[in-house]
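Run ATP-grasp domain-containing protein through structure prediction, thanks.
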Amino acid sequence: MTGPGEGTRHVMHVGFFPEILDHVDVSRDLLSVLLHQRAADETAPGISLRLARLQPVDVPHRLNNNDYDDFYPEFQAGAEKIAEQLGAPQAVVGLYEHTVVPAARLRERFNLPGTSVDTALNCRDKVRMKHLVAQAGVAVPQWLDLAGATGERIRSWLNSRPGRWVIKPKSEGGAVGVQIVDNPTAGLAAISRIPAAELNRYEVEEFVEGEIFHLDAVVRDATISFHSLSRYLNSCHDSSVHRLPLASITVTDGELVAGAREVADRCVSALGIADAVIHLELFRSAGEWIFLEIACRHGGAAVVPHLQEIFGVDLLDESYRANVLDPSLVPPAREQTPLRPEHACSAWLLAPMKASGQFTVTAVHPPEDVPGIVSARLPEAGDVVTDEFRPFPHLGVFILAGADEETVRRDIHQVLATYRVDLQSVPATSVPLAEEIG
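Sure, done. The structure for ATP-grasp domain-containing protein is below.
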């Protein structure tokens, strides 16, 4: 057995993206990685050389956030193989939605501190989380857990509550598997199409009319330090299913921010979150905050680059620090204060990929007359792009900022009206990105 040397620690990662290497001191942290076989095979040699051990695990390569936990016995077997070579880990890291629970299970297996299995499940099971935060006085949508529900029970429940309904997996993310139905008949038809063996993984939830917000926060010692509140322009479902632009703009109304922070405090306490980065989603309906869901990891889409660019808070780094219980770099009680006063309001935008399949980029036409662009990550001619395994297929990421919300919204619309990407397929196609956005 070749374990870590003096002054180093063995940190085991469940799942892995190379970006995390920018946040790790490899002279201190000996990294081992458990990764599904296809991703392990595609890991660049230069990345593999920076890892002490890359252990492939036989898990399907698909967009399914449950697979890593469904195949947990294989992950535990892989972890024990690694431990035979490197010694038991001193920390286990799970930074992504599909890795939070199996990482917690491995902490339990190796008797390590950090996010527990109970807390991880509280932040993955949408029925469980609603039940717990409701007990803490947070408003939640009405819901029906389909696990064990008879056809008559489902029919009776839908018929007794007029309106639209959301049928969704209890432990997915990014609007994967979500269906919105307009009446009980459509709801029953949609539920009937779910395989019987999978029905216990679904719920039906009241469709809440209103705006959707997300609050991203650093939690240490069960207390929120940094937090940022943003309002979605279009929803994750709109982007995932209908390929509409996905954007989010910071909230500058102090009263709204304070109200959302109070809800977040209650959720953190109710769910047992001690050291983590969280992504909380809330409805705002008829002047009331209503819980949507929470994740015990940093937000996806462009949340991380946006908050780093505008506020100087690196949520990926904070996630890693929370997982290994290193001190946070965020000062306690940090307010939502931009680094630059002229960036009083800011946003991120994913320019949608409308086409399905695999394409070669033949030309990129940058947006015109958009002074508020702070940074942009665009494809280049010759790049190969695909919508495969991407919950929000897009062809560009923009971070924008300005003096107020009206200015930032105007710049978002200008990006969508003028930015174009030409894609080569059969036949060649030019994809306009202009689309209505709220």
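Residues 145 and 203 are 5 Å apart (CA to CA).
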